[in-house]
Amino acid sequence: RSTLFPYTTLFRSASLALVALTGWAQVNPTTTLQGSWSGKLKAGVASLTVVLHLEQADGYVKVTLDSPDQGVKGIPTYKEYLTDDSLAVKMEQLNATYRARLKDGKLDGTFSQMGMSFPLVLERGVPEVKRPQMPKPPYPYETEEVTFVNKADSATLAGTLTWPVGYDKQAKQKPIVVLFVSGSGQQNRDEELMNHKPFLVIADYLARQGIATLRYDDRATGKSVGGDVKNATSEDFARDAAAGLDYLRNRKAFSKVGILGHSEGGTIAFMLGGQKKVDFIVSMAGPTVKGDTLLAAQSNRIFSLSGQPANMTVEKYRQTTAAMKMPWIDWFNDYDPSDNIRKTHCPVFALNGDRDCQVISSLCLPALRQLLPPSKKHLIKEYPGLNHLFQHCTTGLPTEYSQIEETISEEVLKDIAQWLMQQK
Which residues is 37 bridged to in the sheet? Predict the structure, then answer.
């Protein structure tokens, strides 16, 4: 599984994939090009930051690539040649190369892949990453490191319980608590992605508004141990989340226990809502249609924004993913959330950005309105100009995520907090 929902359609269609490469051939004891170089690889509307590292390692120069916009670091390369003013590195698995010569202090070159070539100019240094919303200690609230166990899957989940500002254990009024469930892919408790930590930002904001939260490392990730990942599906991950809910209820420190799920986490939220395990749900870009329908629509939106024909059908998508033989995708393609949504009677706040390329709001929000049992406590809202991470964006393409300084819209944070306070 990949972070959030599968990105394969984007990076393969844009011919910009940077995945695991192999080895290095030429032995160079040193080069004046040693250091880090970075630049933008552009193909149509798609743009990826590329960082090239030349480092001394055991008597030779090792060359690696980072693709920060894809969250990929330390990709090894095969060196065709390396001098003091030029280099060529080869990516055999991708049939790709980068060849460049030093010109006016810059590496002026060409990235080639599968018969296509793109200019790529790299400058010395690594681009500064700015994340102005990142909370910084000291915090005005207490946090507690906790663990809980999903016995059925032999998984021990580690997380951070964040208490509200001014929390008094002796007070009669108990706070509500929200369990955070991340999107697809093994992520840490902050749902860290491309130097963004959305769950940390949300937890910090809610603590300042009097709301407790528990966020945890996904199974076999961070400090969490155990639990099968290779063959796991959303049903398995839902049992992890259910164990977290049970843990919070057993603490007897909270008035109500709810769930905030992002992307696949929204799927899991409605699975547990259908089982009547939660007092309320916040679904951030949660899928509400059958998996294969959602992912075919995702592919077409990304194709269209990347300047390619949006001709993906459900049948074609299923044929493509069948060859991957990935249990998570096979399960997700077949999963229809309709029944669980119909059985969800707790209050729901469902929100989507209208530029979300991964969970299309115009597809999912109307379906949710039809399926969800009516209640005056529900809030279903679409946010103009926001992407899958609820950032203000230009296109909504995942390649923008790392380039945007904002981690999550302040309006979204405010709305979540206000709605949750109404659930007390």
Answer: 52, 124
